[in-house]
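Q: Given only this backbone (241 positions), what sequence would you predict?
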């Protein structure tokens, strides 16, 4: 009995040690679009590994130019372990009201046409094909995205952590003879990605604005070097349907 008890205690201790050294995975919250579909917004939030500080980041993207709106992204971290995630999120939300109101985004959230969280093991992390609307029989052209990873020179500080990866996102033609189109291809690694090691398609959000052109946003999870293990953060690529 003592032997079994000792093994159990050792196993539990090792499990706790591994758990304590895990990287942090930011939770994704899709905020929505502005009424005309011109802006897409999303939020990521979590507890930073190593420090234990809560953070919340908000991104507001021009869907026509694939660029951040002035004054964004909004990045909040409260350097206090006793602060809550709600505190960080509320602060980021307050700052975001000057960019696009929460009420407008919520009223035009669109449809999460496809989703594959970073915990998904059975799906293809580099491919997602969706019907843009929940209309059956289907009346819309399907949207299919493919993500390709490739080695790319990164900041010098990343050299000891492994191969730094960039990505390209391709929209696959669905009609016979239709050519694929390139939505994004990295030419350099922004410092905000913090030594990226890999990517996966996490979700596709679609929106059909009244009287406007339908749009979508592909949410991509970035696996990068963290303080205690791999971290996951989010980026988005918009496009027109």
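A: Predicted residues:
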């Amino acid at each position: 009995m003592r032997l079994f008890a000792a093994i159990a205690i050792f196993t539990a201790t090792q499990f706790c040690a591994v758990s304590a050294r895990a990287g942090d995975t930011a939770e994704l919250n899709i905020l929505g679009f502005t009424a005309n579909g011109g802006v897409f917004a999303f939020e990521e939030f979590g507890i930073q590994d190593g420090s234990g500080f809560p953070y919340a980041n908000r991104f507001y993207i021009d869907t026509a130019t694939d660029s951040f709106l002035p004054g964004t992204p909004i990045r909040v971290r409260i350097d206090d372990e006793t602060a809550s995630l709600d505190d960080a999120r509320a602060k980021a939300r307050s700052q975001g009201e000057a960019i696009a109101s929460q009420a407008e985004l919520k009223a035009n959230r669109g449809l999460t046409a496809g989703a594959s969280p970073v915990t998904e093991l059975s799906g293809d992390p580099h491919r997602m094909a969706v019907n843009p609307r929940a209309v059956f029989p289907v009346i819309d052209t399907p949207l299919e995205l493919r993500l390709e990873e490739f080695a790319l020179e990164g900041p010098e500080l990343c050299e000891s952590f492994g191969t730094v990866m960039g990505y390209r996102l391709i929209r696959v033609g669905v009609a016979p003879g239709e050519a694929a189109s390139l939505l994004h291809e990295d030419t350099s690694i922004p410092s905000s990605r913090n030594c990226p090691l890999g990517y996966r398609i996490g979700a596709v959000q679609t929106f059909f604005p009244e009287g406007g052109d339908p749009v979508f946003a592909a949410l991509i999870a970035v696996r990068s070097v963290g303080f205690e293990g791999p971290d996951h953060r989010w980026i988005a690529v918009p496009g027109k349907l």
